[in-house]
Amino acid sequence: MDAPEDGQVPMDNDRKPREHCGLCGVTGGEGLLERLHDGLQAQQHRGQEAAGVMVSMDGACRLHRGPGLVEQVFATLPTSWLGEGGAIQRGISHVRYGTAGDSIAANAQPLLVDMAGITIGIAHNGTICNARSLRRELHAQGAIFQTTTDTEIILHLMARALMTRCRGRIWDAFEDALRQLRGAFSLLAMTADAMVAARDPFGFRPLAIGDFNDGAYIVASETIAFGVTGASTMREVEPGEMIVWDSSNRLESRRFAECTRRAHCIFEHVYFARPGSYVFGDSVYEVRREMGRRLAREAPVDADVIVPVPDSGMYAALGFAEESGIPLDMALSRNHYIGRTFIDPALTTTRCKLATNKLHPIPEALCGKRICLVDDSIVRGNTSRSRVHTLREAGAREVHMRVSCPPHRFGCYFGIDFPQREALFANKVPAADAARSLRLDSLAYLSRNGMLSCVRARRAEDFCCACFDGDYPVLPDQLDERPL
Ligand code: SF4
Questions:
Q1: One-character DSSP codes across 9-53
Q2: CA-CA to 339 of 20 to 30 Å: which in 78, 171, 250, 356?
Q3: Which domains does the chain have, with CATH numbers?
Q4: Distance between CA 371 and CA 367 in Å, rounded?
Q5: What would the pLDDT profile of 172-190 be if each residue is shown by its tens digit?
Q6: What Å distances lie between residue 467 and 379, 405, 426, CA to CA?
Q7: Beta bridge partners of 67
Q8: What is the pTM of this model?
Q9: Is 424 a pocket residue for ligand 1 (Cβ < 6 Å)?
């Protein structure tokens, strides 16, 4: 895949909403750097703009980060990290996307600062809803910010607490800072002799702990990081929980806030998380497949073949085919070598062309057939329209579409980059005209209740569905503030 170039905004060919970050931390054990690399790389889908890693070595913290994929950033690690060693005791790492206007270099994470003589690093997944008012307050007290990320606010809050209420107790200061935040934050932090994981009281974003048989621990956004490193899943970091691993790798659980309502992001199950992961206690693969089965029951179709949109619609399509008894065929083939492209967002024509080129129709599988296309979501509608056009050009007799979540009508304040509300397809086109607008013979979405019925480990009310129903579990500083 292409690396981003300075000054350009990363745009996904398929124009899906983007997760902002993925986390991986390891403390103790052998081959720590390799485990960090493998765990982070398995979560590359959560952010492809920049990556970073911070380690403690021989009692000192070191940081390496930069633009590009995990592989590219790790390829330029200082050679001193790679020597004889075994001297790395703990490390945290991060992949990220940015938003327009971000400085890729300055905002790459982990962020590392010196705080009253203690070096501390921090990495964050999510979005802090009261960032604007906290930043204003800190500015008024003389704080100087080096980045535009909300993550840096946590460090300033810590520094303030460290000098006042917490008197040099660094993790008490961290806890104090967490209590002042509202919104979505799964966090990893470390000093030279401790590592910490924490999750906001709603538990918006996933964060889980695994362990190795050599006494080491791993913390990651998704459990796929455990599978690839040989770790076993222990449990999730609970909403409102902070876990500290001290210099002897002893684990201490603290509760910095009560969890009065869970609000796990249901879109992790629909689209973001990898099918090989468990998030919020459920297998993403099983939930996604069940969504397809449920969709087939809610919106049956008269078709000859079920065609998944690769790769995002794959598992829902499997479930749909299974339930409906209609055969599945891979009639759209993906060109993996186009991958992501980083282009000027103004180049709409180029982007549409790239979107079309990424998926190739196979006429032999389509000609004269009634097709049911299964995808995980429709965001702006442009890509779906061009896909339908492609299928018809390749000879499909009818094209129906089934979507494994409800229509997106609202933005997200909790770490997902949706377009402006008015750009969302479901807001632009009345439901009665939606199929015609996409040149479909029929279009149906999975219902909200149907979607939530597919999770097992948690109750339906434990999920955030705000981008579908506008019911935000927590609101940002200003109600008119545009979601990410
Ligand atoms: S608004 Fe949507 S994308 Fe954002 S956290 Fe809630 S369910 Fe997830």
A1: --B-TT---EE-EEEEEEESSSSHHHHHHHHHHTTGGG--SEEEE
A2: 78
A3: 18-260 (3.60.20.10), 283-463 (3.40.50.2020)
A4: 10
A5: 999 999 999 999 999 999 9
A6: 11, 11, 11
A7: 50
A8: 0.91
A9: no
